[in-house]
Design goal:
160 residues; binds coenzyme A
Length: 160
């Protein structure tokens, strides 16, 4: 499949990704992130335009504009350090384990570096998500048991 990377789709088109998550964001929450400066990136089939994978991130210093439920615990330690917080990596089930999440991760990391950021931080689920981050150079800081009410997530950082 030939793929293309895009930024800034209408949020209603992106809600299909929320079904893949243990923590699901509403359209209003995604809009709140967007209003605070978050960047939403997508990988899609270049021919059919069908969406495959999503990731979004925000400058840590902009997170104080967000309501409490969107302020990720631990991120406050990275204020003033020129870091971005990666909220989500999601590949639709039928496309998982085919390398698309990794391709979008690489695209995101290059974009964040090109924008001049020094670090990426985030909380990753102990599935393909932490694997994806560790294989792109992330280092685990600590674990958060019951991050989403049931699962342990690892809090990580990565130099850009
Ligand atoms: C995590 C996720 C984004 C990975 O996307 P993907 O497109 O399948 O990723 P890739 O195919 O590029 O695989 C990345 C790595 O993770 C591994 N992997 C993928 N899914 C996995 C799983 N369920 N369990 C263990 N490892 C997995 C792959 O083998 C690959 O490892 P490798 O680089 O050593 O070969 C995808 O599984 C997903 O959307 N999951 C549901 C939503 C979710 O939990 N998101 C994370 C929230 S923090």
């Amino acid at each position: 499949m030939e793929v293309e990377f895009i930024e800034g789709l209408p949020l209603e088109e992106t809600m299909i990704f929320e079904g893949e998550h243990s923590i699901q964001l509403s359209k209003d929450q995604k809009q709140e992130l967007k209003n605070a400066g978050a960047i939403f990136l997508y990988l899609r089939d270049a021919e059919t335009k069908e969406l495959v994978s999503e990731t979004y991130y925000i400058k840590v210093d902009d997170m104080e504009k967000l309501s409490r439920d969107l302020q990720a615990e631990g991120s406050e330690e990275w204020k003033g350090k020129n870091a971005v917080y990666c909220y989500s990596n999601t590949t639709l089930t039928r496309y998982q384990r085919q390398g698309f999440g990794g391709m979008l991760k690489d695209y995101f990391l290059k974009q964040a570096k090109d924008k001049g950021y020094d670090f990426v931080i985030g909380h990753a689920r102990r599935n393909g998500s932490i694997k994806l981050n560790l294989s792109s150079g992330a280092i685990i800081i600590r674990e958060y048991p019951n991050w989403d009410g049931s699962e342990t997530y690892d809090f990580y950082y990565r130099n850009l």
